[in-house]
Write a structure and sequence with these properties.
The structure is a single chain. The chain is α+β, with helices and mostly antiparallel strands and 328 residues long. The protein is 44% helix and 14% strand. The chain folds into three domains: 7-102, no CATH class; 111-202; 228-323, no CATH class. The strands form three sheets. A three-stranded antiparallel beta sheet has the order 1-2-3, with helices on one face. The protein is elongated, with a radius of gyration of 32 Å.
Length: 328
């Protein structure tokens, strides 16, 4: 990823760390693209012999000259660390430079690695906390990301520190043009990426948020509704193929209960109870919102349940509509 890089070095005094007014420690601040990292250089000085404007000692005494030479050496180490990161193909950050100078080795995490880590955590919590559909969407997002990085940046993965606003906008463009996703679908994929980025930031694997100044708002969608006549036509339509007939019945059952498809699949016989009005109700919880729902069973919904009360086999083996028996 091409990005103009700025590097600044500043030496300054930390009076709050001094043992006395005459012994104040000197710190070095490394700034890369606006991101700062600070470190003590283990030298002290009397503030009267420090030039705040230039950030160097002043005076003719030999110790101040030696201190000035030491600051030049520390500055040289910063540039050497920058050069080392560039040669190794690693992102140049203020923290990475500081770690090299301090002799620390810190793993630099990559985006797809973190995405895999997130998806493993999600998979362990499915279906307890997340639905299978949600997990699938994150896996699809990961797949799109891998293809995007390979095609756009000619590499198999990217360091988190390389991500910026340009990366996110390029991804948005890729999803809309190459993958031909509509706006709202694109936003959902990008929000999935943002969730993974937030996980990385909470773990202190990433300092800069690439989503700053990036909008992830969806656009309102005009939803079409079936009229009573259209619904009746669908109910009375003769469908000879059992599998399609069953799909139609599930859809009609959803229309009369207000349940989403995934919530219909979860229904069991125990979910049908008699309410205080003596009529049959569905007592369940929504898959997406985890909120409880008490739904009266209208005659048409009861008719569909009754239709399948004696069916032991269903072509759609992954749903449980045929497991519900009509409670007479």
């Amino acid at each position: 990823m091409s990005e103009r890089q700025t590097l600044a070095i500043l030496f300054y005094l930390r009076r709050d760390k001094g043992k006395s007014d005459a012994e104040v420690p000197i710190y070095m601040r490394i700034t890369v693209n606006g991101q700062r990292a600070e470190m003590a250089i283990h030298r002290i000085i009397n503030p009267n012999h420090w030039n705040n404007e230039s950030g160097i000692p002043r005076g003719s005494r030999n110790e101040y000259k030696q201190l000035g030479e030491y600051l030049v050496l520390m500055r040289s180490k910063v540039y050497q660390a920058q050069k080392s990161l560039i040669e190794d193909g690693k992102p140049v950050t203020s923290i990475a430079i500081r770690n090299i100078i301090q002799g620390k080795t810190e793993k630099q995490h990559k985006l797809l690695e973190v995405f895999d880590y997130h998806n493993r955590l999600m998979e362990e919590k499915t279906p307890i906390q997340y639905s299978t559909a949600t997990l699938t969407r994150f896996k699809t997002t990961r797949k799109h990301l891998e293809e995007f990085i390979t095609k756009h940046y000619k590499t198999d993965d990217m360091y988190l520190a390389q991500l910026n606003h340009e990366f996110v906008t390029n991804l948005e463009h890729y999803l809309k043009t190459v993958k031909e996703c509509n706006h709202n679908t694109t936003v959902k994929y990008i929000k999935n990426l943002k969730k993974v980025i937030n996980l990385a930031r909470k773990n202190d694997w990433l300092i800069r948020d690439p989503f700053v100044n990036f909008s992830t708002a969806t656009k309102p969608v005009k939803r079409e509704f079936l009229s009573a006549e259209e619904l009746k036509t669908l109910e009375e339509k003769e469908i000879l193929l059992p599998r399609l007939s069953q799909v139609r019945d599930i859809f009609i059952f959803s229309c009369y209960t207000g349940l989403a498809y995934i919530d219909v699949l979860k229904l069991k016989r125990d979910n049908i109870v008699r309410g205080i009005d003596g009529e049959k109700w569905i007592f369940t919880s929504r898959e997406k919102t985890l909120t409880k729902s008490n739904i009266p069973l209208l005659p048409k919904a009861l008719e569909i349940i009754d239709k399948y009360k004696d069916v032991n086999y269903s072509p759609l083996s992954d749903h449980r509509l045929t497991n519900i028996s009509y409670l007479s």
